[in-house]
Specification:
The complex is a heterodimer of chains A (about 60) and B (about 300).
Chain A (H helix, E strand, L loop, with lengths): L1 H26 L4 H29 L1
Helix pairs in contact in A: 1-2
Chain B lengths: L13 H9 L15 H6 L12 H26 L7 H22 L4 H23 L2 H12 L3 H6 L10 H23 L1 H6 L11 H49 L1 H45 L4
Helix pairs in contact in B: 1-10, 3-5, 4-5, 4-11, 5-11, 8-10, 8-11, 10-11
The chains are: A mainly alpha (about 60), B mainly alpha (about 300).
Organism (chain A): marine metagenome
GO molecular function (chain A): lipid binding; proton transmembrane transporter activity
InterPro entries (chain A): ATP_synth_F0_csu_DDCD_BS, ATP_synth_F0_csu_sf, ATPase_proteolipid_c-like_dom, F/V-ATP_Csub_sf
Chain lengths: ~60, ~300
Amino acid sequence: MGAGLAAIGAGIGIGLIGMGVAGAIARQPEAKDEIRGQTFILAILVEGTAILLGLLSLFIG
Amino acid sequence: MLIDKTDTSHSNDPADVAIDHVANNYEHIILKLSLIPEKWIETYPLLGIFDFSITKHVFLLILVAFITVSSMIFLVQNYISSKTKVPGKTMNFIEMIILYMRENVLKSFIGEKYYKDWDALVYTIFFFVLIGNFLGLIPIFDFLGLINYLAGGIPVVKDLIHGGNTVTANINLNFALATITFGAFTIAGIKRYGFFHHWKNLAPPGLAWPLYFIVVPIEVMAMLIRPISLTLRLAGNMMGGHLALIIFTQLFIIEVAKNYGIFAALGGSIFSVSLSIGVIFLEIIVAFIQAYVFALLTAVYIGMAVNVDH
């Protein structure tokens, strides 16, 4: 259950990032590379939290 | 993993099989190499740091390090000594990766001026983690198990076969790598700003003084948690993929065979094999991304220590 909750949180977070990125690239195609770099960092941070929680639920459960 | 009939130390419990597959195995040590008598370690477990026995993961670690170093030296030597100076296929691929890393990671996060000090570290971390991740995807140990099974038990191979695993799924190894990153960004900051100024950079200047009681502990905690998050991200990703793979292939078949007999398991294996092929493709992507992420975050942290002023 913990893993499921972590997955839901990460899914929403990464989805929001993806939405923002798609909008940003559509608005400014010339800034594609910079946006991509920032996206990676944000997605990593969101994902890191999810993985931490998933591991916790694995070890406790 | 083929079942070794002479070995009775393994249970058929699905959870045990999965953990045995992923975790480091202390029961089957390839080479015993302890600086102090084993009785001391049994009484004082902390003395275990002097135990340099080669387990499955240590063996993999040495293998990965050897492959990383020797392949790079071989490729670059080959390129330098060739008369035409045309890079081969593999060399081209590696050049492409390094160029991408230099333009998009090092130059944009550390900056034009300072990236030359740290590029070697970032490339090394990238290739080490990449080769570690990919070596875990190749079932070498399971293949050794097949050889062992056919030959009827070879002494050294017998200790090697207990589960193939990614070395980067080991938390200890990842924490060692993350400690190198931690040391690197600390040294980078000290080199740029001097010892005392580097620690002053933790908190932004110009706040009202009571705020520092809140800001400084938060910043110190954020700094200390960086290696831990690096460790858990890589280990969690690698371990999660392998656990999913094991659950889809072995556990599924074991459970079905237990409850519904061997023919149902044969039918179910079609389903589980096709699922696990999908997981393997996902794992190939994840192996690449995680190596990139580890190197990227190293560069980002170094960049944050070096370019405080903006």
